[in-house]
Amino acid sequence: MNSEKVDLEILVGYSQDPLLFDAQDDDVWYHAPEEAGDFFHLSEGLVRELEAWDREYQGTLNIDDPRESGFPSENAYHTWLNKGRELASRIKRESPNVGRVGYQARGEYQRGECVF
């Protein structure tokens, strides 16, 4: 087990892994949920939920016209945002070696975003 606390950012973007942290093993800072699960000792259930949450976001990309990308409704977007907050909180509770967990759903802290 890693004994040092490591900060984690949840920072989604198209065609990139959603979890940003320094695993201190190479130059890759963006990690897939499975890699983060191994590093932070997360439950398999939480890892699967993180993967599904990221897939949902990736599915909003309109490759033919990226300007038209996005969730089908404000309600769907807010449901997705709230799920991300819940997942961030669960990471903080589950992991024995996570320090700070920042949740940046759209690449920056906006009103309503959070840090645990």
Helical residue percent? 25-40%
Number of strands: 5
Largest sheet: 5 strands, mixed
The whole-angstrom Rg is: 14 Å
Number of helices: 3
Q: Please give the alpha-carbon distance between the first and last residues.
A: 22 Å
**What is the succession of H and E elements?**
EEEHHHEE
Q: Label the structural class.
A: alpha+beta
Poorly predicted residue ranges: none
Mean of all residue-level pLDDT scores = 89
Biggest sheet, spatial arrangement of strands: 3-2-1-4-5
Beta content comes to 15-25%
Question: What is the global morphology?
Answer: globular
General description of the model:
- The protein is globular.
- It is 38% helix and 16% strand.
- The protein is α+β, with helices and mostly antiparallel strands.
- The chain has helices spanning 33-40, 44-58, 74-94; strands at residues 6-11, 19-20, 30-31, 98-104, 114-115.
Which key phrases capture this entry?
5-stranded mixed sheet, alpha+beta, 16% strand, 116 residues, globular
Short description:
With 116 residues, the protein is of the alpha+beta class. The protein is built from three helices and five strands. 38% of the residues lie in helices and 16% in strands.
SSE topology:
Blueprint: E1 6-11, E2 19-20, E3 30-31, H1 33-40, H2 44-58, H3 74-94, E4 98-104, E5 114-115
Parallel strand pairs: 1-4
Antiparallel strand pairs: 1-2, 2-3, 4-5
Helix pairs in contact: 1-2, 2-3
